[in-house]
Amino acid sequence: MFPALSRISRRRALQGSAALAVVCALLLWWLLPMDDSSPSGRLTFSTGVQSGVYQRYGDLLKNALAHDLPKVSIELRKSEGSQQNLARVASGEADFTIATADAVAKYRRDGRPGADRLRGCARLYDDYVQLVVPQGSPVETPADLRGRRVGVGQDRSGVRLIADRVLTAAGLDARQDIEPVSAGLDTLPGRLERGELDAFFWSGGLPTGTIQKLSERFPVRLVPVGDRLIGRVHATGDATRHYHSAVIPAEAYPQMGARSPVQTVAVANLLVTTDRADPELTERFTRTVIRSRDRIGREVHPAQLVDLRTAIYTDPLPLHEGARRYYGSVKP
Question: What angle do CA 57, 59, 62 make, to 5 degrees?
């Protein structure tokens, strides 16, 4: 009797050990990076200004890519924004970047160097135009900015592009009717707080951390960009078809105390590369962007809006072959 029980116990122990080994192997497979066929080398990702969403998103994405592409060394390069990002990628100075769809359309329409080589990997999240003024400011519409000191973003940024278009639609010449201040989000809030600016434009995901922090220490509010003005923005050129009417929820910036949503204009951000990018590397890069959405979104809220169902729509850019492979592999 006892030898039989001993054999049963040994058999159960062996079965338990085998099951444990399988579980450990699966866990190890899940934790370890990609296999040995993983691409190798170096790549540069052009981001944005120090305090902006592009830069923070790039920091977190770099960590996710380090896990999924362990043989690839990733360098992040700060930039003035979308327009400089596109120039870097098109020239080969950077391999991947983020840029707004309107900036991409303008780059292509203007026939800029390398424009025909640009390719899309994913539609990410929308940027919202945010016109920030002190709480007690008399500015109620963009037209009220006449004669005032206005932060319009850096020269090669997407902010500057859309700020100029909103001002034009409001009947203002950005060079003559206002005092334009060309600077990035890293300095504009401080200048507004010190009374050196009357207003500043920002185009970014919601909420933008730097504006949120400003609202917590200094009373500010957002100026709406109404329907009529948006219609005039659309009339300024082909690239503006990528703008759409949107609202900034009152709860986006609780400290501002807004009682209702603020109407504005929004534009999609695209993950951009060129036809030079290796298809396998691009496929895995795109996979990491989609899979890391929730993890990155816990710290950069706009990243939560990256959606597999819409990511494939990279208009005005054709989809990169590597990205196409990824979307094909996960198609329901």
Answer: 105
Q: Is 77 helix (H, G, I), strand (E, B) or coil?
A: strand
For residue 133, report the phi and psi dihedrals to the nearest 5 degrees: -135, 160
* CA pair distance 251, 313, nearest whole angstrom: 29
Secondary structure tally for the chain: helices H, strands E = 12, 10
- Give pLDDT, residue 21: 53
Distance CA 298, CA 74 (A): 22
Q: What SS3 state is found at 148?
A: coil
Crossing angle of helices 227-234 and 158-169, in 10° steps, is 110
Q: Residues 288-319: pLDDT tens digits?
A: 999 999 999 888 888 888 999 999 999 999 99
For residues 141 and 226, what is the distance between their CA atoms, to the nearest angstrom? 8
Q: Where is average pLDDT lowest: 2-16, 52-66, 152-166?
A: 2-16
Lowest mean pLDDT among 89-98, 175-184, 198-207, 237-246: 237-246
Peptide linkage before 316 cis (omega within 30 of 0): yes
* φ/ψ of residue 126, rounded to 5: -90, 145
Q: Which helix (H) or strand (E) holds 107?
A: helix 101-109
C-alpha 295/C-alpha 67 separation (Å) is 13
Which of 208, 189, 174, 175 is closest to 53 using CA atoms?
Answer: 208
CA distances from 125 to 221, 267, 276, 301, 314 (A): 23, 9, 25, 10, 11
What pLDDT was estimated at residue 238?
Answer: 64
Backbone angles phi, psi at 225, to 5 degrees: -110, 100
For 326, the token pair is 């990824």
Of 213-222, 241-250, 280-289, the poorest mean pLDDT is in 241-250
The β-bridge partners of 157 are none
| Structure token pair of residue 249 | 């929820």
* pLDDT given for residue 18 in this prediction: 53
Mind giving me the DSSP string for 287-316? Answer: HHHHHTHHHHHTTSGGGGG--HHHHT--TT
CB atoms within 10 A of CB 175: 9
